[in-house]
Design a protein that fits this description.
The chain is mostly helical. It has one domain (76-317): Orthogonal Bundle (MetI-like fold), CATH 1.10.3720. The protein is 69% helix and 0% strand. The protein has 15 helices and no strands. The protein has helices at 2-15, 28-62, 74-83, 91-121, 127-139, 142-153, 158-165, 182-193, 196-207, 211-219, 224-235, 237-249, 258-261, 271-280, 291-317. α2 (28-62) runs antiparallel to α15 (291-317), α4 runs antiparallel to α12 (237-249) and α4 (91-121) packs across α14. It starts with a helix and ends in a 7-residue tail after the last helix.
Length: 324
């Protein structure tokens, strides 16, 4: 009986063999989509290969070479030793000052530019004049702005007269020639001159907000603060995300006009300016530049900052945005 059943099953299986999957040719529409995606991706990849990898591959190799071209780890050793020095034009001081400028950009400049842009967007009294006043530092030459600022804070300037009027005294050498105050005076200059570009970007994003939404909120009794927090910010959140990501991308480049103010003296150097000094060389022509330690420093900071940027981008993309 069992053999009969097995024979019948084999017979039925032979009568109905399993269907084989046939390869379906790709349709013309799908082929066109793949070609389009390939072309769109090929351009940025090619740009990265030419303008980043090709340009920087020699710089990356310098991190592992001594002045004679031999392989060495000494550049990373020197970087680690200078990182622990806390006085002078060293990496340790540069990292602290760079983080100060970065914190000022995130906590003061961006929120300040957002608030200024909102008030200008609401067309407050003399809004056109204030728009020019806040953007003027971005138009005038940096050398002129530094000279004007120095004339205010240097000994014998208006700031000293105001402080003495209230019974105070400034250091005789001046605030920019004092290690305790030089960096903070440059930070104040950066704040004073750093609202222009961000203000324009925020203002442009607010100009795209539908007027109907604001009018409906005003009819419901929505005040200015609630309008800014619950309506304006969600609608311009993509612009805020982009600016935050760009700010974190330039964390190592956060700096001020150190060369024009102090040339890095009085413990005012930053990572950006420290790299400039190392590449510029003692002779002022780049001939004696310490390119190996600069390359090693760049690699180390890249390994630290890239994960931070990716995490920040991932966190910002989790916040839901409003479509309009």
């Amino acid at each position: 009986m069992t053999e009969t059943v097995q024979t019948a099953a084999v017979g039925r299986a032979s009568e109905h063999p399993p269907k084989q999957k046939r390869f379906k040719p790709m349709s013309g529409k799908k082929r066109g989509q793949l070609i389009f995606l390939f072309c769109m991706l090929a351009l940025p990849v090619l740009q990265w290969l030419i303008f980043w990898l090709y340009v920087n591959i020699q710089s990356i190799a310098l991190a592992f070479q001594d002045p004679h071209g031999s392989f060495t780890w000494s550049n990373f050793t020197m970087f680690w030793e200078e990182l622990h020095v806390t006085t002078g034009k060293t990496i340790g001081v540069a990292v602290v000052n760079t983080l100060i400028y970065f914190a000022v950009g995130i906590l003061i400049q961006l929120p300040g530019a957002l608030i200024i842009a909102y008030f200008l967007y609401k067309k407050i009294w003399l809004n056109r004049a204030f728009r020019i006043i806040f953007y003027l530092p971005a138009i005038i030459s940096g050398v002129v702005m530094v000279a004007a600022y120095r004339s205010i804070v240097d000994p014998g300037g208006p700031l000293e007269a105001i402080v003495e009027l209230f019974g105070g005294h400034l250091p005789p050498e001046g605030l920019l020639a004092n290690s305790n105050s030089a960096t903070w005076m440059i930070v104040l200059f950066v704040i004073w001159t750093g609202f222009g570009g961000n203000m324009l970007l925020f203002g442009g994003a607010m100009a795209r907000v539908p007027i109907d939404v604001l009018e409906a909120a005003r009819l419901e009794g929505c005040g200015p603060f609630r309008e800014l927090v619950q309506i304006i910010l969600p609608l311009i959140w993509p612009t805020i995300c982009t600016m935050l990501i760009f700010t974190f991308t330039g964390i190592v480049n956060s700096s001020g006009p150190i060369l024009l103010f102090t040339n890095g003296d009085y413990e005012t150097t930053t990572i950006n300016f420290w790299i400039f000094l190392k590449v510029y060389g003692q002779q002022g022509s780049g001939a004696g530049g310490e390119f190996g330690i600069v390359s090693a420093t760049g690699l180390c900071f890249t390994l630290v900052t890239v994960p931070i940027i990716l995490i920040v981008r991932w966190a910002l993309e989790r916040v839901p945005t409003s479509e309009y």
